[in-house]
Write a structure and sequence with these properties.
By secondary structure, the chain is α+β, with helices and mostly antiparallel strands. The protein has helices spanning 42-48, 108-115, 131-145, 182-197, 225-234, 255-258, 327-349; strands at residues 5-6, 11-16, 22-28, 65-69, 71-72, 75-76, 81-86, 151-159, 162-163, 204-211, 239-244, 262-263, 266-267, 275-276, 279-280, 285-291, 301-304, 310-313. The strands form 6 sheets. Strands 1-2-3-7-4 form a 5-stranded antiparallel β-sheet, covered by helices on one side. The chain has a 5-stranded antiparallel β-sheet with strand order 9-8-10-16-11. The protein has a two-stranded antiparallel sheet with strand order 5-6. The mean pLDDT is 95. The structure holds flavin mononucleotide (FMN). Flavin mononucleotide binds at residues 57, 106-107, 126, 128, 131, 236-238, 292, 294-296, 319-320, 323, 326-327, 330.
Protein backbone atom coordinates (compact mmCIF):
# COMPACT_ATOMS: atom_id res chain seq x y z
CA UNK A 1 0.00 0.00 0.00
CA UNK A 2 1.83 3.13 -1.22
CA UNK A 3 1.19 6.72 -0.22
CA UNK A 4 2.59 6.72 3.32
CA UNK A 5 5.41 9.23 2.75
CA UNK A 6 5.27 13.02 2.38
CA UNK A 7 8.01 15.57 1.63
CA UNK A 8 11.18 15.80 -0.46
CA UNK A 9 14.03 16.59 1.97
CA UNK A 10 12.12 16.57 5.27
CA UNK A 11 10.43 13.24 4.56
CA UNK A 12 7.74 11.91 6.86
CA UNK A 13 6.52 8.31 6.67
CA UNK A 14 3.69 7.35 8.98
CA UNK A 15 2.80 3.78 9.96
CA UNK A 16 0.44 1.87 12.22
CA UNK A 17 -3.26 1.24 12.62
CA UNK A 18 -6.08 2.43 14.84
CA UNK A 19 -6.50 -0.88 16.68
CA UNK A 20 -2.98 -2.34 16.23
CA UNK A 21 0.03 -1.84 18.53
CA UNK A 22 0.22 1.87 17.82
CA UNK A 23 1.01 4.52 15.23
CA UNK A 24 4.23 6.34 14.48
CA UNK A 25 6.35 8.38 12.12
CA UNK A 26 9.80 7.95 10.64
CA UNK A 27 11.37 11.29 9.70
CA UNK A 28 14.29 11.47 7.31
CA UNK A 29 16.19 14.65 6.50
CA UNK A 30 15.94 16.40 9.86
CA UNK A 31 19.18 18.34 10.38
CA UNK A 32 21.46 17.30 13.26
CA UNK A 33 21.91 19.13 16.59
CA UNK A 34 18.28 20.15 17.15
CA UNK A 35 17.15 19.56 20.73
CA UNK A 36 14.36 16.98 20.90
CA UNK A 37 12.84 15.24 23.91
CA UNK A 38 9.56 13.39 24.62
CA UNK A 39 8.35 16.50 26.53
CA UNK A 40 8.40 18.52 23.29
CA UNK A 41 5.43 16.50 22.04
CA UNK A 42 3.21 16.77 25.11
CA UNK A 43 1.33 19.98 24.27
CA UNK A 44 0.34 19.20 20.68
CA UNK A 45 -0.44 15.54 21.37
CA UNK A 46 -2.76 16.63 24.19
CA UNK A 47 -4.49 19.11 21.88
CA UNK A 48 -5.25 16.34 19.35
CA UNK A 49 -6.02 13.40 21.58
CA UNK A 50 -9.55 12.07 22.05
CA UNK A 51 -11.46 12.00 25.33
CA UNK A 52 -12.81 15.56 25.65
CA UNK A 53 -16.16 14.84 27.33
CA UNK A 54 -19.17 15.68 25.17
CA UNK A 55 -17.06 16.85 22.23
CA UNK A 56 -14.71 14.15 20.98
CA UNK A 57 -14.52 10.36 20.92
CA UNK A 58 -14.41 9.01 24.50
CA UNK A 59 -11.45 6.76 23.59
CA UNK A 60 -8.80 7.48 26.24
CA UNK A 61 -5.26 7.66 24.89
CA UNK A 62 -2.40 9.42 26.64
CA UNK A 63 -0.55 9.66 23.31
CA UNK A 64 2.90 9.67 24.86
CA UNK A 65 5.53 9.90 22.12
CA UNK A 66 8.48 7.52 22.39
CA UNK A 67 11.62 8.51 20.49
CA UNK A 68 13.04 5.23 19.19
CA UNK A 69 15.96 6.58 17.15
CA UNK A 70 17.72 9.63 15.74
CA UNK A 71 18.33 11.45 19.02
CA UNK A 72 21.54 11.23 21.08
CA UNK A 73 21.93 13.03 24.39
CA UNK A 74 18.88 15.19 23.64
CA UNK A 75 19.99 16.30 20.16
CA UNK A 76 18.97 15.04 16.73
CA UNK A 77 21.84 13.25 14.99
CA UNK A 78 20.74 13.60 11.35
CA UNK A 79 19.75 9.92 10.96
CA UNK A 80 16.09 8.85 10.70
CA UNK A 81 14.02 9.81 13.72
CA UNK A 82 11.48 7.13 14.64
CA UNK A 83 8.56 8.20 16.83
CA UNK A 84 6.06 5.75 18.31
CA UNK A 85 2.69 6.30 20.01
CA UNK A 86 1.23 3.16 21.59
CA UNK A 87 -2.47 2.35 21.37
CA UNK A 88 -3.63 1.78 24.93
CA UNK A 89 -7.41 2.02 24.73
CA UNK A 90 -8.40 0.39 21.45
CA UNK A 91 -11.74 -1.40 21.88
CA UNK A 92 -12.75 -3.45 18.86
CA UNK A 93 -15.87 -5.01 20.41
CA UNK A 94 -18.45 -2.49 19.09
CA UNK A 95 -17.06 -2.92 15.58
CA UNK A 96 -17.77 -6.68 15.45
CA UNK A 97 -21.33 -6.34 14.03
CA UNK A 98 -19.91 -4.05 11.31
CA UNK A 99 -17.47 -6.66 10.05
CA UNK A 100 -19.45 -7.28 6.89
CA UNK A 101 -20.98 -3.81 6.35
CA UNK A 102 -19.53 -0.67 4.79
CA UNK A 103 -20.00 2.58 6.72
CA UNK A 104 -21.59 5.16 4.38
CA UNK A 105 -19.32 8.20 3.95
CA UNK A 106 -16.29 6.26 5.22
CA UNK A 107 -13.45 4.54 3.36
CA UNK A 108 -14.50 0.91 4.08
CA UNK A 109 -16.16 0.44 0.68
CA UNK A 110 -13.28 1.80 -1.42
CA UNK A 111 -10.59 -0.05 0.56
CA UNK A 112 -12.56 -3.26 0.02
CA UNK A 113 -12.85 -2.56 -3.72
CA UNK A 114 -9.14 -1.70 -4.02
CA UNK A 115 -7.44 -4.14 -1.64
CA UNK A 116 -10.02 -6.90 -1.22
CA UNK A 117 -10.26 -6.25 2.54
CA UNK A 118 -10.94 -3.46 4.98
CA UNK A 119 -10.13 -2.99 8.64
CA UNK A 120 -13.55 -2.97 10.29
CA UNK A 121 -11.85 -2.41 13.69
CA UNK A 122 -11.77 1.36 13.54
CA UNK A 123 -10.49 1.75 10.00
CA UNK A 124 -6.80 0.81 10.40
CA UNK A 125 -4.76 3.16 8.21
CA UNK A 126 -7.70 5.37 7.25
CA UNK A 127 -8.59 6.03 10.87
CA UNK A 128 -7.93 9.51 12.27
CA UNK A 129 -5.63 7.71 14.75
CA UNK A 130 -3.00 8.02 11.99
CA UNK A 131 -3.08 11.80 12.46
CA UNK A 132 -1.40 11.36 15.88
CA UNK A 133 1.77 10.43 13.94
CA UNK A 134 1.42 13.56 11.79
CA UNK A 135 1.13 15.76 14.86
CA UNK A 136 4.30 14.18 16.31
CA UNK A 137 6.16 14.78 13.01
CA UNK A 138 4.83 18.35 12.99
CA UNK A 139 6.52 18.98 16.33
CA UNK A 140 9.89 18.10 14.76
CA UNK A 141 9.13 20.31 11.74
CA UNK A 142 8.24 23.11 14.16
CA UNK A 143 11.69 22.78 15.73
CA UNK A 144 13.26 23.56 12.34
CA UNK A 145 10.97 26.55 11.77
CA UNK A 146 11.08 28.12 15.25
CA UNK A 147 14.58 29.68 14.95
CA UNK A 148 13.41 31.39 11.72
CA UNK A 149 10.53 33.01 13.59
CA UNK A 150 7.90 31.03 11.64
CA UNK A 151 4.70 30.52 13.67
CA UNK A 152 1.75 28.40 12.60
CA UNK A 153 -1.65 28.85 14.22
CA UNK A 154 -4.91 27.13 13.26
CA UNK A 155 -8.38 27.72 14.66
CA UNK A 156 -12.02 26.92 14.08
CA UNK A 157 -13.91 29.45 11.96
CA UNK A 158 -17.13 27.51 11.66
CA UNK A 159 -18.78 24.42 13.19
CA UNK A 160 -22.18 23.08 12.18
CA UNK A 161 -23.04 26.44 10.58
CA UNK A 162 -22.04 28.51 13.64
CA UNK A 163 -19.50 31.13 12.51
CA UNK A 164 -16.75 32.81 14.52
CA UNK A 165 -17.21 36.54 13.92
CA UNK A 166 -14.74 38.03 16.34
CA UNK A 167 -11.20 36.70 15.77
CA UNK A 168 -9.36 37.02 19.06
CA UNK A 169 -6.29 34.78 18.84
CA UNK A 170 -5.91 34.83 22.64
CA UNK A 171 -9.22 32.97 22.91
CA UNK A 172 -8.14 29.94 20.85
CA UNK A 173 -6.59 27.85 23.59
CA UNK A 174 -9.38 28.80 26.03
CA UNK A 175 -12.06 27.43 23.73
CA UNK A 176 -12.71 23.64 23.73
CA UNK A 177 -13.20 24.04 19.96
CA UNK A 178 -10.05 26.14 19.41
CA UNK A 179 -12.44 28.89 18.33
CA UNK A 180 -11.22 32.50 18.58
CA UNK A 181 -14.73 33.82 19.39
CA UNK A 182 -16.16 33.17 22.88
CA UNK A 183 -19.79 33.80 21.81
CA UNK A 184 -19.47 31.39 18.89
CA UNK A 185 -17.83 28.83 21.22
CA UNK A 186 -21.00 28.76 23.34
CA UNK A 187 -23.19 28.27 20.27
CA UNK A 188 -20.84 25.56 19.00
CA UNK A 189 -21.26 23.74 22.31
CA UNK A 190 -25.04 23.82 21.78
CA UNK A 191 -24.99 22.56 18.19
CA UNK A 192 -22.53 19.77 18.93
CA UNK A 193 -24.52 18.61 21.97
CA UNK A 194 -27.75 18.46 19.99
CA UNK A 195 -26.08 16.72 17.00
CA UNK A 196 -24.65 14.14 19.39
CA UNK A 197 -28.07 13.61 21.00
CA UNK A 198 -29.60 13.05 17.57
CA UNK A 199 -26.86 10.51 16.75
CA UNK A 200 -25.60 12.83 14.02
CA UNK A 201 -22.36 14.63 13.18
CA UNK A 202 -21.19 18.06 11.98
CA UNK A 203 -18.74 19.62 9.54
CA UNK A 204 -16.81 22.84 9.83
CA UNK A 205 -14.19 25.25 8.52
CA UNK A 206 -10.77 25.95 10.00
CA UNK A 207 -8.25 28.67 9.20
CA UNK A 208 -4.47 28.28 9.27
CA UNK A 209 -2.21 31.34 9.58
CA UNK A 210 1.56 31.33 9.18
CA UNK A 211 3.48 34.38 10.37
CA UNK A 212 7.20 35.03 9.94
CA UNK A 213 7.54 32.95 6.78
CA UNK A 214 10.34 34.36 4.66
CA UNK A 215 9.76 35.19 0.99
CA UNK A 216 11.02 32.55 -1.41
CA UNK A 217 9.66 29.21 -0.14
CA UNK A 218 8.04 27.07 -2.83
CA UNK A 219 9.23 25.73 -6.17
CA UNK A 220 8.00 26.59 -9.66
CA UNK A 221 5.43 24.55 -11.58
CA UNK A 222 4.39 21.30 -9.79
CA UNK A 223 5.83 21.95 -6.33
CA UNK A 224 4.28 25.37 -5.76
CA UNK A 225 3.88 26.19 -2.08
CA UNK A 226 0.11 26.60 -2.37
CA UNK A 227 -0.17 23.32 -4.27
CA UNK A 228 1.92 21.52 -1.64
CA UNK A 229 -0.08 23.02 1.23
CA UNK A 230 -3.35 22.09 -0.42
CA UNK A 231 -2.13 18.52 -0.98
CA UNK A 232 -0.94 18.22 2.62
CA UNK A 233 -4.18 19.56 4.07
CA UNK A 234 -6.40 17.63 1.66
CA UNK A 235 -4.64 14.41 2.72
CA UNK A 236 -6.32 14.71 6.14
CA UNK A 237 -9.59 12.74 6.36
CA UNK A 238 -12.80 14.84 6.20
CA UNK A 239 -11.09 17.76 4.41
CA UNK A 240 -13.06 18.45 1.24
CA UNK A 241 -11.86 21.93 0.30
CA UNK A 242 -8.81 24.16 0.70
CA UNK A 243 -8.71 27.90 -0.02
CA UNK A 244 -5.62 30.13 -0.06
CA UNK A 245 -6.07 33.82 0.73
CA UNK A 246 -9.50 35.01 -0.39
CA UNK A 247 -9.82 31.68 -2.22
CA UNK A 248 -13.11 31.15 -4.05
CA UNK A 249 -14.09 34.75 -3.33
CA UNK A 250 -11.36 35.87 -5.80
CA UNK A 251 -13.55 34.52 -8.60
CA UNK A 252 -16.10 37.26 -7.83
CA UNK A 253 -13.61 40.16 -7.76
CA UNK A 254 -12.16 42.32 -10.53
CA UNK A 255 -8.37 42.39 -10.97
CA UNK A 256 -8.35 45.92 -9.58
CA UNK A 257 -10.12 44.64 -6.47
CA UNK A 258 -8.12 41.44 -6.04
CA UNK A 259 -4.53 42.54 -6.69
CA UNK A 260 -2.57 43.37 -3.55
CA UNK A 261 -0.82 46.71 -4.16
CA UNK A 262 2.96 46.61 -3.74
CA UNK A 263 4.47 49.49 -1.78
CA UNK A 264 8.05 50.21 -0.71
CA UNK A 265 7.01 48.95 2.72
CA UNK A 266 5.48 45.71 1.45
CA UNK A 267 2.04 44.61 0.29
CA UNK A 268 -0.86 46.96 0.93
CA UNK A 269 -3.30 44.04 1.46
CA UNK A 270 -3.14 40.25 1.56
CA UNK A 271 -5.83 38.76 -0.64
CA UNK A 272 -3.16 36.45 -2.11
CA UNK A 273 -2.79 34.77 1.29
CA UNK A 274 1.00 35.20 1.30
CA UNK A 275 1.73 33.20 -1.85
CA UNK A 276 2.18 34.43 -5.45
CA UNK A 277 3.19 32.16 -8.33
CA UNK A 278 3.54 29.32 -5.84
CA UNK A 279 6.26 31.13 -3.86
CA UNK A 280 5.86 32.73 -0.45
CA UNK A 281 5.90 36.53 -0.69
CA UNK A 282 6.88 37.23 2.93
CA UNK A 283 3.34 38.16 3.97
CA UNK A 284 1.19 36.09 6.31
CA UNK A 285 0.15 32.77 4.74
CA UNK A 286 -3.59 32.28 5.16
CA UNK A 287 -5.52 29.18 4.20
CA UNK A 288 -8.83 27.59 5.08
CA UNK A 289 -9.94 23.97 5.12
CA UNK A 290 -13.54 22.76 4.83
CA UNK A 291 -14.37 19.54 6.68
CA UNK A 292 -17.29 17.25 6.00
CA UNK A 293 -19.32 15.81 8.90
CA UNK A 294 -17.89 12.67 10.53
CA UNK A 295 -19.19 9.63 8.62
CA UNK A 296 -19.75 7.30 11.64
CA UNK A 297 -23.15 8.29 13.00
CA UNK A 298 -25.71 6.75 15.33
CA UNK A 299 -28.62 7.25 12.92
CA UNK A 300 -29.77 4.33 10.84
CA UNK A 301 -28.38 4.38 7.30
CA UNK A 302 -28.69 2.29 4.16
CA UNK A 303 -25.65 0.34 3.08
CA UNK A 304 -24.66 -3.02 1.61
CA UNK A 305 -22.69 -6.01 2.88
CA UNK A 306 -19.55 -7.43 1.26
CA UNK A 307 -21.69 -9.43 -1.16
CA UNK A 308 -23.67 -6.35 -2.19
CA UNK A 309 -26.90 -7.24 -0.32
CA UNK A 310 -28.81 -4.25 1.05
CA UNK A 311 -28.50 -3.73 4.81
CA UNK A 312 -29.28 -1.20 7.54
CA UNK A 313 -26.50 0.13 9.72
CA UNK A 314 -26.42 2.04 13.00
CA UNK A 315 -22.91 2.85 14.24
CA UNK A 316 -22.42 2.02 17.90
CA UNK A 317 -18.61 2.39 18.33
CA UNK A 318 -16.82 5.40 19.83
CA UNK A 319 -16.47 8.28 17.43
CA UNK A 320 -16.10 12.04 17.18
CA UNK A 321 -19.14 14.20 16.48
CA UNK A 322 -16.99 16.50 14.35
CA UNK A 323 -13.37 16.60 13.13
CA UNK A 324 -13.33 19.93 15.00
CA UNK A 325 -11.57 20.44 17.39
CA UNK A 326 -9.15 17.51 17.02
CA UNK A 327 -8.18 18.40 13.46
CA UNK A 328 -6.76 21.79 14.48
CA UNK A 329 -3.31 20.53 15.61
CA UNK A 330 -3.26 18.19 12.59
CA UNK A 331 -3.70 21.17 10.25
CA UNK A 332 -0.88 23.00 12.01
CA UNK A 333 1.34 19.91 11.78
CA UNK A 334 0.79 19.45 8.04
CA UNK A 335 1.49 23.14 7.37
CA UNK A 336 4.71 22.92 9.42
CA UNK A 337 5.83 19.76 7.59
CA UNK A 338 5.39 21.49 4.20
CA UNK A 339 7.17 24.65 5.33
CA UNK A 340 10.08 22.79 6.95
CA UNK A 341 10.53 20.73 3.80
CA UNK A 342 10.49 23.83 1.58
CA UNK A 343 12.84 25.69 3.89
CA UNK A 344 15.37 22.83 3.68
CA UNK A 345 14.83 22.67 -0.09
CA UNK A 346 15.53 26.41 -0.40
CA UNK A 347 18.76 25.97 1.58
CA UNK A 348 19.83 23.02 -0.58
CA UNK A 349 19.40 25.25 -3.68
CA UNK A 350 21.46 28.13 -2.25
C1 LIG B 1 -9.37 14.61 13.76
C2 LIG B 1 -10.27 13.68 13.03
C3 LIG B 1 -11.12 12.84 13.75
C4 LIG B 1 -11.95 11.96 13.09
N1 LIG B 1 -12.76 11.12 13.83
C5 LIG B 1 -13.55 10.23 13.19
C6 LIG B 1 -14.40 9.35 13.93
O1 LIG B 1 -14.42 9.36 15.17
N2 LIG B 1 -15.21 8.51 13.22
C7 LIG B 1 -15.22 8.48 11.86
O2 LIG B 1 -15.97 7.71 11.27
N3 LIG B 1 -14.44 9.30 11.14
C8 LIG B 1 -13.60 10.16 11.77
N4 LIG B 1 -12.81 11.00 11.03
C9 LIG B 1 -12.98 11.05 9.58
C10 LIG B 1 -12.49 9.88 8.79
O3 LIG B 1 -11.14 9.60 9.11
C11 LIG B 1 -12.63 10.17 7.31
O4 LIG B 1 -13.84 10.79 7.04
C12 LIG B 1 -12.56 8.89 6.52
O5 LIG B 1 -11.24 8.41 6.55
C13 LIG B 1 -12.98 9.04 5.06
O6 LIG B 1 -12.13 9.93 4.38
P1 LIG B 1 -12.70 11.22 3.66
O7 LIG B 1 -13.46 11.98 4.68
O8 LIG B 1 -11.47 11.98 3.22
O9 LIG B 1 -13.56 10.77 2.51
C14 LIG B 1 -11.96 11.89 11.67
C15 LIG B 1 -11.09 12.73 10.96
C16 LIG B 1 -10.25 13.60 11.62
C17 LIG B 1 -9.33 14.47 10.84
Amino acid sequence: MAGNTFGRIFRVTTFGESHGHGVGAVIEGCPPRISLSPEDFVRDMARRRPGKPGIASPRKEMDKVEILSGVFEGLTTGVPIALFIRNKDADSTPYKPLERLFRPGHADYVYFKKYGHFDHKGGGRYSARETAARVAAGVVAGKILAPLGVKVVAYTLELGGVKAKNIDLDMIEKSPFFCPDSTATKKMEEVITSAKKEGDSLGGIAEVRVTGCPAGLGEPVFDKLDAELARAIMSIGTVKGVEIGVGFEAARLKGSENNDPITPKGFGSNRAGGILGGISNGDEIVLRAAMKPIPSIGKEQNTVDREGHPAKMTFTGRHDTSAVPRIIPVLEAMAKIVLADHYLRSKAMA
